[in-house]
Amino acid sequence: QREALNGTWDALKNNRADLIIAIGQIPDSVQAKTLMLGKLDFVLCVSPSHPFAAQRTPVCKKQRLNDIVVAIADSSHELPKRNHGTLPLQRQLVVCDVESNLALLKRGIGHAFLPPALIEKELASGELVTVPVEMQKGDEMIWLAWHPASKGAGFNWWHERLTRKSDVYSLMGREVVRDGGYPWCHN
Q1: Which is nearest to 175 in space by CA: 116, 129, 108, 92?
Q2: Per the database record, which ranges form the LysR substrate-binding domain (predicted)?
Q3: 156 with 78, same domain?
């Protein structure tokens, strides 16, 4: 099952997952062993046909409030839901996954903060462009987390690969995995 935002932590907490890769702050109520894999940065992106794309100055808060943000829904059942790159009182078009987010952005609908590594293909093809913004979204930590009692051949196989920096680079890209916490684990 796919999870998003705090839904990933919720899946670990409620035993719907044994091992997760999640972004953001570790919720206080989640008991897990963790390894910081790195930091993920975000850029404001839009379609080249979006009004923000032609703008010569950084997009300000008021402009963002007057536009639609395309946001991915938090799939958490129990933990508080997070909003990702949205402002209070901002009009939102909430989608269930990144693919839907990208499809709307490419059609010129709204704006979103997304990791550059996630949209490399769209940026290279010109389907999306990044725009400067006055109030940048902060970096988010990328975590590998698992139950302290997790064991078994499947868990061990995944854990071994996801704690090897070379495998994490191939999974997420070298530019995504920066300032990682290797080799330190946090309990």
Answers
A1: 116
A2: 7-164
A3: no
Q: Please state, in angstroms and rounded to a whole number, the distance separating the CA atoms of residues 25 and 28.
A: 9
- The whole-number pLDDT of residue 37 equals 81
What sign has the CA pseudo-torsion 171, 2, 97, 41?
Answer: negative
Per-residue pLDDT, 85: 63
**Residue 163 structural domain:** 6-39+143-172
Q: Do residues 127 and 95 both lie within one domain?
A: yes
- Residue 127 shares a structural domain with residue 50: yes
Residue 182 lies in a domain: no
- Tell me what pLDDT residue 49 has: 96
Residues with pLDDT less than 70, the chain: 80, 83-89, 165-187
In sign, the C-alpha dihedral spanning 149, 153, 158, 161 is positive
Domain count, the chain: 2
Within this chain, do residues 153 and 93 fall inside the same structural domain, yes or no? Answer: no
How many other β-carbons are positioned within 10 Å of the β-carbon of residue 142?
Answer: 23
For residues 177 and 38, is the Cβ–Cβ distance under 8 A? yes
Q: Which pairs count as long-range contacts for 101-107, CB under 8 Å and 24+ apart, including other chains?
A: 101/70, 101/71, 101/72, 102/128, 104/70, 105/45, 105/46, 105/47, 105/70, 106/47, 107/47
